[in-house]
Amino acid sequence: MDAIIYHNPECETSRNTLAMIRNAGVEPHIIEYLKCPPTRLLLTQLLTRAGLTVRQILREKGTPFQALGLGDACLSDAALLDAIDAHPILMNRPIVVTPKGVRLCRPSELALDLLPPQQGAFVKEDGEPVIDEHGRRVALA
User: Which of 8, 32, 67, 79 has most Cβ atoms within 10 angstroms of its Cβ?
Assistant: First the structure.
């Protein structure tokens, strides 16, 4: 299966998602979006395929979101895209693309619906079990 992940190696959620993709036996194309951001057209296409709005992809924490006044509901999609173009850190991550769809994988478990079955147990970096030794999803208590 082909898979693409728009990834930030500094982000735990992104690292967990990448590890889940690999645990499914898939070696994805990794795009470090801070080094190689998607074009405006590509980002718009990804959002459309994922069923998301530009506002839904904006990241507030650790970004210039507040300083740029991006919380203003009157801002157009074009203005928000301008901000993402200028500051790619504003794009939330990770975004995963497979033949099964496109999804913003927050939480990382959202990637599971886009992947083949997991090939073994999987535990997130923080110790939270996601997949048991039989390849089944762990139910949260």
Answer: 8
CB 43 within 8 A of CB 81: yes
**Complete DSSP assignment for 12-30:** HHHHHHHHHHHHTT--PEE
103 in Cβ contact with 114 (< 8 Å): yes
Residues carrying an active site annotation:
11
Residue 12's alpha-carbon distances to 5, 15, 47, in angstroms, are 14, 5, 22
Dist. CA 51–CA 123, nearest whole Å: 29
Which among 62, 58, 106 is positioned nearest to 84, based on CA atoms?
Answer: 58
Provide the whole-model pTM: 0.94
Tens of pLDDT, residue by residue, the chain (141 residues)? 999 999 999 999 999 999 999 999 999 999 999 999 999 999 999 999 999 999 999 999 999 999 999 999 999 999 999 999 999 999 999 999 999 999 999 999 999 999 999 999 999 999 999 999 988 899 765
